[in-house]
Amino acid sequence: MSKRKTVLDIQKMKADGDKITVLTCYDYPTARIMDDCGIDMILVGDSVGVVVAGHENTLPVTLEEMLYHTRAVQRAEPKALVVTDMPFLSYQIDLRDARLNAGRLVKEGGAAAVKLEGGEHMASTIRAIVDMDIPVVGHIGLTPQSIHRMGGYRVQGKQEAQAEQLLADARAVEAAGAFALVLEGIPLKLARRITDELSIPTIGIGAGPHCDGQVLVIHDILGLCEKYSPKFVKRYADARALIADAVERYIADVKGGEFPTEGHSFN
């Protein structure tokens, strides 16, 4: 039986030049499928608020919801490293709240690590959580919880000043003790520069091919999210058509009296 992946395993992958695979997951059956396929990391993302709950952005997601979905994923007993997003307002207020909420995601949810958004201005928060021996993944660039400041889902780091700030953010996150860093929505040359400079792994999403690993939202690669279709997403299946076909045939069978049959009934 294969052992569970650890933070050290993920960091070794960068050192060995092995690409790191990450997908979001919010439930037990999907976690089982992903893990059987050999995914390296599972991210219980606050993207659940958009792709599952139907919100316009991630801001309404609560800590209790993240705990619920983390527990569901952990019941699959995945060998992948499970990382949970800290939702908006669970870490921005003060260090005590940040430490307590990170601790709850590990203690009550079963996460092996937490992820939070922000660069230099979040360095003290990252350090405070790491000091509790809770591994942290950073996240810079297009940070969805900052959507109002950014004026929407816009690529970050195109201008020189922005790019220099993102470099400073990356260095600050690493110095604060994060074991990995998500780079979202930034130019590929900048992502490559950050990846080459840092000793910790970079996980890209809309950041080009030069990161140490990649992450996508599972609903996006399955064709289940119709709210948006980012340029950086590659669709690997049309699960919507598959589900629609099954539902339509079920409706037709029930209305036509073809389901249930005696074979589906009890004597």
Please, could you describe this protein's structure?
With 267 residues, this protein is an alpha/beta fold. It has eleven helices and eight strands. It has helices spanning 7-16, 28-37, 48-51, 63-74, 95-107, 123-130, 147-150, 160-175, 188-197, 218-221, 239-255, and strands spanning 20-24, 41-44, 81-85, 113-115, 136-141, 180-184, 202-205, 213-216. The chain has an eight-stranded parallel barrel with strand order 1-2-3-4-5-6-7-8, surrounded by six helices. The protein is globular, with a radius of gyration of 20 Å. It starts with 6 loop residues before the first helix and ends in a 12-residue tail after the last helix. The model has no long low-confidence stretch (mean pLDDT 97).
For this entry, give a set of tags:
alpha/beta; 40% helix; 11 helices; 267 residues
Describe the structure concisely for a colleague.
This protein has 267 residues and is α/β, with parallel strands linked by helices. The protein has helices at 7-16, 28-37, 48-51, 63-74, 95-107, 123-130, 147-150, 160-175, 188-197, 218-221, 239-255, and strands at residues 20-24, 41-44, 81-85, 113-115, 136-141, 180-184, 202-205, 213-216. The protein has an 8-stranded parallel barrel with strand order 1-2-3-4-5-6-7-8, surrounded by 6 helices.
* Count of DSSP H/I helices: 11
Question: What value does the average pLDDT take?
Answer: 97
- Major sheet details: 8 strands, parallel, barrel
Question: N- to C-terminal separation?
Answer: 43 Å
The largest sheet has its strands arranged as: 1-2-3-4-5-6-7-8
The arrangement of helices and strands along the chain is HEHEHHEHEHEHHEHEEHH
Gyration radius from CA atoms, angstroms? 20 Å
CA-based shape: globular
Strand elements, count: 8
**Which stretches are low in confidence, meaning pLDDT under 50 for 5 or more residues running?**
none
Strand percentage = 5-15%
Approximate helicity band: 40-55%
Structural class: alpha/beta
